Amino acid sequence: MNTVLKIILQRLGLGLLTLLVVSIVIFLAVNALPGDFAQVILGQGATEQATAQIRRDLGLDQPLVMRYFAWLGGMATGDLGTSFAQLNFAQNMGGSGGVTVVEQIAPRFANTMFLAGVTAAIAVPVAVGLGILAALYRNTAFDKAANVATLSSISSPEFFMAYVLILFLAVLNPILPSLSNIYEGMPFGERLTRTLLPALTLTLVVVAHMMRMTRASIINLLASPYIEMARLKGIAPMRIIVRHALPNALAPIINVIALNLAYLITGVVVVEVVFVYPGIGQLFVDSVKIRDIPVVQACCLIFAAAYILLNLTADVMSILSNPRLRHPK
Amino acid sequence: MTLALVLLALLPLAWVFRFAGQRLTRRPYWRDMTFAVAYGYLLVAVLLAWLAWAYLQSMSADAEVANTYFFLRVAINLFIGFAIAAILFRLLGRAVGPAWSRKAFRQMPLTAAFGMLTIIVYVVVAIFAPLIAPYGQEQIIPGVAANILPGGDPALGGNPDFPLGTDQIGRDILSRLIYGAQNTVGIAFATTCLAFVLGGTLGILAATLGGWLDNLLSRAVDVLMAIPSLIFALLLMTIASVWAPRLGIPLTVFMVFIIAVIDSTRVYRLARAVAQNIVVMDYIEAAKLRGEGLRYLVFKEILPNATAPLLAEFGLRFCFVFLTIAALSFLGVGIQPPLADWGTMVRDLASFINFAAFAPLAASAPLLAAGAIALLTVAVNFLVDWMLHRSSGLKE
Fold it and tell me: What DSSP string describes A30-68?
């Protein structure tokens, strides 16, 4: 057990290091902007005095390295900075409500996690179940139809899927609402119905890949001698797959599930925009459009962190589920 | 609710179905049939029956009912049409052409034939777009109203001169759709080529030379791959959108370079892995001992042996690049107007979809643009799937 702990700690350290380097990349990328934030905020009509004022307020007169560490320290302690757009807005209104990036991101982050959770809850059982069925009835008409269907859904853009679903499930047959305008304090059932359509879209995108990998990793194992043995003993095909093949195929399947959940992070951006779902992806795109740099920076780091974390989980899970990796020679 | 009832009702029916089969014939197929398979057969039968019923419904005189099933009918028609086109194309390929291509067509599954046909059609449309399109892509036709609905029926707000209608400032949607093939596909193709030149060169060099270059490049690629590609592209596009007007370079050029760099990391990974397997071969050792230079090694020894996986990767990479560009354009930061582009068109026309219940043709405009994207990526994937299957030697 000691070696496992060591490996996991190693991976965790590597993940943290990657995140650190990624944060440097993001920081440098943003600092490649011409001029500086102050000019970007004030736009064309910037006076010398106002620019200097904002520069001082945001600490832009400090050297680059100092700014990076200040930013990183803020990130680590949960202070993600001040949103430009909200700052302007708040100053004009004479108030100070909701100007920090955290206040903007936190509720939306929870919404996105809810959407991802609903998607995973639908997608994972469906994908594994269909993958097992496709492996069981391999090379039959069912398998071939599933192959064509999954290949098509992998390669369609998310917004195509989203609009087709809206067309059939919201416009032609009004079963589900096409806009997912959820808000705080909404009853859970209502919230779920409104989240269902974006979740279904994401499910369609993710299930195909997971199912293909489940099928492939099970079929890979079916040629091995111990499966042959089980077959010769006269065990039913379904039981062979579920009891004998599946436990050994678990590592690649878990890996693919984690990778696809990581993929969800990217898919979520487009889907949230289509359904006007108030999640972090929507906030990210809006901030990109109005060049609200602190929000873009923070969202980017959160996405990258989630991505790295899920990849890390995939790594650790596959080590845990594989005795050969658990006890390296 | 109805769905659950039907699924439940099928359970005993499946048992009856299998029992009848076992009684009527003595074939081992029926004897060994599991309950799940019998259930599956019945499920497919019910599904087909429902599709046939829906198809009939779509021709009903009651407009409301007909509209509800209109899109289903179009989907079925398209599916059958595509299948027939693919079969004809495969027959044509088997009959004419040199021996090797006839042989390839004989082994080709229908999906691959469909993929190839679709790609050919797209390429033709993209190249001859100015000849095919009735109007220019940026042309605002004088004397013609904006927002003419698709369908060409004056009673429903259409105009026979504009079969797909006009957009919010009065440009012909059909023409823009055709020009979209040129812009969207052309830009995606150029980006993929750039990504391949960049990633492929560096990957093969890293594998051949090894040492610090390999280490440096691989670590850099690891870092870039740790950021989700669409997110990274959006971040860089934000920065580019500030730079673009200052430098006087169109934003689209920035986008091509940004996506090419991001995607070249994936190409680098593959090219390096493939080349590393080749570099350890004996014939490379022999060439090195002969005193051949780096250029000879790369172009005469490594590249010819790495063509098949790189070609398949090119197809898949094209799909990813194409989808990324479409997504960026859909989000409003990709290909910039006035260039006609499918992603942007979907976003601009999306609200038409809400009219589907009473004017189905109006809702078809955004779906056509989104469908054009989906169709091409599906086609490329079908073709690449077959190529991979063939080159891996997996016949069954």
Answer: HHTSSS-HHHHHHGGG--HHHHHHHHHHHTTTS-HHHHH
Is A29 close to B319, i.e. CB distance below 8 A? no
Contact status, residue B159 vs residue B144, Cβ threshold 8 Å: yes
Whole-number Å distance between alpha carbons of A306 and A298: 12
Looking at chain B, which residue has its C-alpha nearest residue A312?
A: B226
Q: Is A155 on the interface with B (CB under 8 A)?
A: yes
Chain A interface test: which of B110, B239, B241 (most A C-beta within 10 Å): B239
Q: Which two tokens stand for residue B218?
A: 């691989």
> If residue B213 lies in a helix (H) or strand (E), which one and from where to where?
helix B211-225
Amino acid at B329: S
Instruction: List the single residue in A with minimal CA-CA distance to B32.
Output: A236
The per-residue pLDDT string of chain B (396 residues; one tens digit each, 9 = 90 and over) reads: 777 888 888 888 888 888 888 888 777 777 777 777 888 888 888 889 988 888 888 777 777 777 778 888 888 888 899 999 988 988 888 888 788 888 888 888 888 899 999 999 999 988 888 887 777 777 776 666 666 666 666 666 666 667 777 777 777 788 888 888 888 888 999 999 999 999 998 998 888 888 888 888 888 888 888 888 888 888 888 888 877 777 778 888 888 999 999 999 999 988 998 888 888 888 888 888 888 888 888 888 888 888 888 888 888 899 889 988 988 888 888 787 777 888 888 888 887 777 777 777 777 778 888 888 999 999 998 888 888 877 765 443
Distance CA B394, CA B279 (A): 25
Phi-psi group of B25: left, alpha or beta (phi > 0 → left; psi -120 to 50 → alpha; rest → beta): beta
CB contact under 8 A, B224 and A25: yes
Structure tokens at B116: 């190839």
How many other CB atoms sit within 10 Å of the CB of residue A58? 19
Distance set, CA B377 to CA B110, B122, B342 (Å):
16, 11, 13
> Of A238, A269, A308, which is closest to B226 when you measure between CB atoms?
A308
CB–CB contact B242 A291 (8 Å): yes
In chain B, residues with a C-beta closer than 8 Å to the C-beta of A289 are 332-333
Asked if B326 and A157 come within 8 Å (Cβ–Cβ), the reply is yes
Q: Determine the distance in angstroms separating the CA of A153 from the nearest CA of chain B, rounded to an integer.
A: 8
Q: How many residues does chain B have?
A: 396
| Domain A101-289 falls under CATH 1.10.3720.10 | yes
What chain B holds in terms of domains, given with CATH numbers, is 1-57 (no CATH), 173-392 (1.10.3720.10)
